[in-house]
Specification:
With 323 residues, this protein is α+β, with helices and mostly antiparallel strands. Helices cover 39% and strands 11% of the residues. The protein contains 15 helices and seven strands. The strands form two sheets. A five-stranded antiparallel sheet has the order 1-5-4-3-2. Strands 6-7 form a two-stranded antiparallel sheet. A hairpin with a 2-residue loop joins strand 4 and strand 5. Helix 11 packs across helix 12 and helix 13 crosses helix 14. The protein is globular and about 55 Å long.
Length: 323
């Protein structure tokens, strides 16, 4: 489930070697005081994500593999206006899709709080917009890596594999910013490298399957969220948890709530009913009054910080590399 954006962005040493290419530039009026951190935060896979960077100057960098090729996007916001610069073969595509990325197609007014907690968070976070990337594989692959492991394990796998098999982001990007591998490159990663990254054979095999059907996967970006989820779930190993996590980002889907999550039902149950033992059925029951906006309701609950106190031990990380 997409959560809150981290509060400590990192510094950004910029590459200095070679001439700096001229960027493509676009300005965009932001709807309703959009908060870039809250909006773009779900795209970040951990504090050291090689494809996403938040910088102390208030800028957000992201490296993407678009239909036009690799691209780098830098976005800043000031006085209600977003200023974007893009480099690489995917620059034009990134700027064309900038409004959707920053939530222009989202409608927060469609959400009506029916619980005092949600009303309070909705009031405190007026800048939340649901991101829409228009890209499927870039959310699908890291979501597959996150299946049934700790977030630290998944973030580490994503970081290691993208840095080793991806390519440096075009333009004057921060050091360490990478475009993820293309579909063919993912399929050529040796089995021992998956193991070194801590990825078991089941998850690695599912990544290979979706990459071999990459064109069909990316076609889902033009479908409705429910149609896209059905398309993704045709691939063995892609279930409801994964498809929801993808369309929340690729489609900006306000109603696609994540089921099958280890923590989310208990968090929603605790926040709305004081029930830390809630399962998926109970969670969906509690979110039923928000039909059409259940994902937004869940995000607001996560942003509230109201989580049940821990009772049991944390999930123990595995060690695939040692097998």
């Amino acid at each position: 489930m997409a959560g809150r954006f981290p509060q400590r962005p990192t510094a950004a040493p910029v590459r200095a070697a070679g001439p700096v290419p001229a960027p493509r530039v676009r300005s965009l009026a932001l709807p309703g005081g959009t908060d870039l951190g809250l909006t773009l935060g779900p795209l970040r896979r951990g504090p050291a994500d090689p494809a996403f960077r938040a910088v102390r100057d208030g800028s957000f960098w992201r490296a993407c593999r678009t239909p036009g090729g690799p691209g780098t996007l830098r976005v800043t916001a000031r006085d209600g206006v977003a200023e974007a610069r893009a480099w690489g073969g995917g620059a034009e595509w990134l700027l064309d899709h900038l409004p959707a990325l920053l939530g222009a197609e989202d409608d927060p007014a469609a959400f009506t709080p029916r619980h005092k907690l949600l009303a309070a968070v909705h009031r405190r976070r007026p800048g939340l917009r649901l991101v829409r990337t228009g890209l499927v594989l870039e959310s699908l692959i890291p979501s597959l890596l996150e299946q049934k492991v700790t977030t630290d394990e998944a973030y580490r796998a994503w970081r290691l594999l993208v840095r080793k098999y991806g390519e440096p982001a075009p333009g004057p990007a921060p050091d360490g910013l990478y475009v993820m591998p293309d579909a063919r490159a993912w399929t050529l990663i040796p089995s021992w490298e998956w193991h070194r990254a801590g990825v078991d054979d089941r998850r690695a095999a599912t990544v290979l399957r979706v990459c071999r059907a990459a064109r069909r996967m990316e076609e889902a970006a033009g479908m409705t969220p429910s149609e896209a989820r059905r398309r993704l779930e045709l691939v063995p190993g892609v279930g409801p948890w994964t498809s929801a996590e993808v369309v929340q980002r690729s489609h900006g889907a306000p109603d696609e709530v994540t089921t099958g999550d280890y923590h989310l039902p208990g968090i929603v149950g605790w926040a709305l009913a004081g029930d830390r033992t809630a399962d998926d059925a109970a969670m969906l029951d509690l979110l039923a009054p928000y039909a059409g906006q259940r994902h937004r309701a869940a995000r607001l609950i996560l942003l509230s910080g109201r989580i049940p106190p821990r009772r049991g031990p944390r999930m123990t990380p595995g060690n695939i590399a040692a097998l």
